[in-house]
Amino acid sequence: MARNKIALIGSGMIGGTLAHLAGLKELGDIVLFDIAEGTPQGKALDIAQSGPVEGFDARLSGANDYSAIEGADVCIVTAGVPRKPGMSRDDLLGINLKVMEAVGAGIKQYAPNAFVICITNPLDAMVWALQKFSGLPKTHVVGMAGVLDSARFRHFLATEFDVSVEDVTAFVLGGHGDTMVPLVRYSTVAGIPLPDLVKMGWTSQEKLDAIVQRTRDGGAEIVGLLKTGSAYYAPAASAIEMAESFLKDKKRVLPAAAALTGQYGLDDLYVGVPVVIGAGGVERVVEITLDGEEKAQFEKSVGSVKGLMDACRGIAPSLA
Ligand code: A3D
């Protein structure tokens, strides 16, 4: 059986980390693409040279021409610009929308059968635009944010409880941004919901509220520390988890920015919800019941995603 082909569109901090992880996990042969000349070629060669040491077999190459992604099974898109301190994800909209137009055309021409995972911010609006620009089925274009946001929540919770991160599950809904909705009720330690753990005295409501807020601000905290860009190790690991679920037909249940076609009473919109990812792409959108407060927070988050979509329509009339 031939190896899978993974195309990484954007070879910056996340793109390079994606290539390294995909190599280490032997997910397939890897093509790095970027408009910056030399960057994808240099990273491909460097990572390929780690193969003999790590013991993985993968062909890595770098390119500045879209023809190199031809026939890719998975495309992971990080092309664009990241945040600098003081910038919101939404400040990136104008620049990154133009990038999505070019990336969408490249994928449409050379990899129309791929499963596409978008990471470029502002995420929910960019993945929505990328699906339209590429014309690929909605089941095959998805955004990575929920796995990362949930991982941040899980890390903070595991540290607070002093238990393994493996035993902490967490759920984050809504748009990727300050309005994301960490669902405390659906987050557990070995199946015990967080509200029960508060009752059991494992933590206080105040501490839990602070963790929820730190999760919402998780990206900005790292931007503030790094000063020159945004997070890349955890975002790359999160997208690889999604790619692996598709390539191995694992049918993982993961939070992701998915196209809604009536679920949650919404249509023609991408927002973070639980989905099943398998060989068919996004095979199912899981509709969970929300209580009054959760619903209100989700609606607020949806409202801010819709605002970004309107801004995109203003810039690119073809999206209307
Ligand atoms: P960075 O290291 O700057 O890499 C971006 C790469 O894109 C650079 O190498 C650019 O040369 C390249 N690029 C720019 N324009 C084009 C184009 N038209 N075609 C191809 N390549 C192009 O950024 P990064 O890797 O740190 O971040 C990439 C994106 O991910 C940014 O938009 C971030 O905001 C976003 N991001 C999202 C999350 C989520 O959870 C959704 C987390 C972290 C970062």
TrEMBL record:
It comes from the Bacteria. Keywords: Oxidoreductase. Its EC number is 1.1.1.37. This is Malate dehydrogenase. It comes from Antarcticirhabdus aurantiaca.
